[in-house]
Design goal:
two-stranded antiparallel ribbon; 82 residues; mainly alpha; 2 strands; single chain
């Protein structure tokens, strides 16, 4: 990993108070999820609620559904919007 990205990850890990046990790949997943979602959702959110990635997989790392300005984490939350 290049020095600039490594520095951004270090700052992000500290800012978000992420666990010291997290591997660099998981920190990167949280980092990307945070910056993608924060462009569309301007409020605080729990990174763990949107994180779906796992170590060394080649699949999705995060999922976020925003409905009428609300970040949805469960089916019940959608029903509450009705």
């Amino acid at each position: 990993m290049d020095r600039i990205t490594a520095g951004l990850l270090t700052a992000f890990k500290k800012q978000q108070s992420l666990s010291e046990d997290l591997q660099e790949s998981e920190i990167f997943e949280h980092f990307v999820n945070y910056y993608v979602i924060s462009k569309e959702y301007n409020y605080q959110f729990d990174l763990e609620e949107i994180h779906v990635g796992g170590g060394a997989d080649k699949a999705l790392d995060g999922i976020a559904i925003v409905v009428n300005g609300s970040l949805i984490n469960s089916k019940d939350e959608i029903e509450e919007l009705e």
